[in-house]
Amino acid sequence: MKHSIWDSIHKLLSPNTYECDLCKLTYGPFSENRRWKKFRSQSTIEMNFLHKDEYQKLFKSKFEKLYDLPVILFQDNYELSVLVGKKELGEMKDVKTLIDTVQSRL
Known about the structure:
By secondary structure, this protein is mainly alpha-helical. It has one domain. Helix content is 53%, strand content 10%. The protein contains 6 helices and 2 strands; from the N terminus they run ααααββαα. It has helices at residues 2-13, 21-26, 34-42, 52-63, 86-91, 95-105; strands at residues 72-76, 79-84. The longest helix is centred in the first third of the chain and has 12 residues, at 2-13. The model has no long low-confidence stretch (mean pLDDT 81).
């Protein structure tokens, strides 16, 4: 909950300094992007989202040095691999591009 309140305030007051390119694509100032939400709800793939501090708490000892955040990871059995990396996320201009990219790689 504290993340969502801070994120909303940050996006409204200083959108150009908002750090997370994935959140920029998938969330508006107050709620989840409708197109993204629909995509997630209709997908058969389990999706889990973690803020940086949550990710570090769960995976730091195993994975932290491997991935530059934000990143979309794909888990196949017990292996994690990059589905969409930080650089590519930063170059995306809209959520449609993100959805198309994710669908094409699954």
